[in-house]
Structure to design on (163 residues):
């Protein structure tokens, strides 16, 4: 299977990225409404119902405005830090607890056979993170809205084939 990373949208009107690995389809952030998110995925031959995980970098609206609708509609597991979860919990609405997976910077987790390592990023958010996603074709690094390029970010992204 092809492995790739695509920015679905980037900017103050909404942010979302899609990564396809050998074993998983992963969305990072969902700053689009449910319809826009589905259309963006369809434009690259993907579908929200085929997603294996949604990762959230931080709680700002341009990164999570469509999150609740997408989670309820497609039952996608959400991975985010506890502080970020507390910040978005009310806006998510009723989402099954089984979909929520709390993560910590520096502690890898798996989505299917794909290993993902979150890392802290400097941003004016409660607990902003980026992600290093391991693939057989080289690692993919995701870091958004950086206040500056910190040593942690540099170390976390060093060696990534795609950033």
């Amino acid at each position: 299977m092809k492995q790739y990373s695509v920015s679905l949208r980037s900017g103050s009107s909404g942010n979302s990225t899609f990564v396809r690995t050998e074993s998983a389809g992963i969305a990072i952030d969902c700053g689009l409404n449910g319809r826009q998110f589905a259309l963006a995925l369809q434009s690259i031959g993907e579908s929200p119902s085929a997603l294996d995980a949604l990762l959230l970098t931080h709680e700002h609206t341009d990164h999570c405005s469509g999150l609740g609708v997408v989670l309820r509609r497609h039952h996608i597991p959400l991975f985010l830090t506890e502080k970020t979860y507390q910040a978005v919990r009310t806006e998510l609405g009723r989402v099954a607890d089984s979909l929520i997976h709390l993560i910590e910077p520096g502690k890898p987790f798996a989505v299917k056979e794909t290993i993902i390592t979150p890392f802290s990023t400097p941003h004016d958010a409660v607990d902003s993170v980026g992600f290093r996603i391991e693939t057989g074709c080289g690692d993919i690094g995701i870091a958004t809205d950086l206040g500056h390029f910190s040593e942690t970010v540099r170390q976390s992204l060093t060696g990534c084939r795609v950033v």
About this structure: The mean pLDDT is 95. Strands lie at 4-9, 16-20, 25-28, 53-55, 78-81, 100-103, 109-111, 114-120, 129-133, 140-142. The two ends are 21 Å apart (CA to CA).
